[in-house]
Write a structure and sequence with these properties.
Elements: H1 2-14, E1 19-23, H2 29-40, H3 42-45, E2 49-58, E3 68-76, E4 79-87, H4 90-114, E5 123-126, E6 150-151, H5 153-163, E7 167-172, E8 178-183, E9 189-192
Parallel strand pairs: 1-2, 5-9, 6-7
Antiparallel strand pairs: 2-3, 3-4, 7-8, 8-9
Helix pairs in contact: 2-4
Amino acid sequence: MRIEAELFTKLEVTKVQPRIKGKNFKITDRLKDYAARKTARLSRLFDRIMSADVEFVDEGGGKGGAVRKAEITLNANGQVLRAEVVSGSFYASFDEAIDKVERQLRKYKSKLIQGRRGAENEIVPSAMATAEASANDHPIARRKTFTIRPMTAEEAVLQMELSGHDFFLFRDAESAQICAVYKRRARGYGLLIPEEEV
């Protein structure tokens, strides 16, 4: 009996407890329970999920109908996985977002299992383009904070792909510089390495 109790306690610890919130509306208990249940199931797929955040946003409506967004962000063993879907229903948006995160999680897990067999795409160094637009022409609409951890450029490309973004900032493990990888329009990836101005 004692062994079963200890095993049950360990299983409960590994099960992710998502933080769920609503923006621009009061989230219902039914929607919150639905999201919590489906998000917690991801722990069966990958047992090292450290945190899970789910945000539902009511972006209003208009002529096109209701706009309901679901955003899911997971921290899986230090890797950030993210999906965002907009549709006419919170449930439909959430279901599609959780499917995307699950695919990302499976991809990440298989990469961990396979180990590194070499980079699939070439990382090409490039100089950063300068923009001369004033701050008044392009106001900042959203600010985000995130943790920068040391990694290789190849690991940064994987993190970028898992997060669904077109670029990713990271601290280079070898030089300790802040760098960025990005998707190139033509094909492959680019690597931005800062250089001191002379």
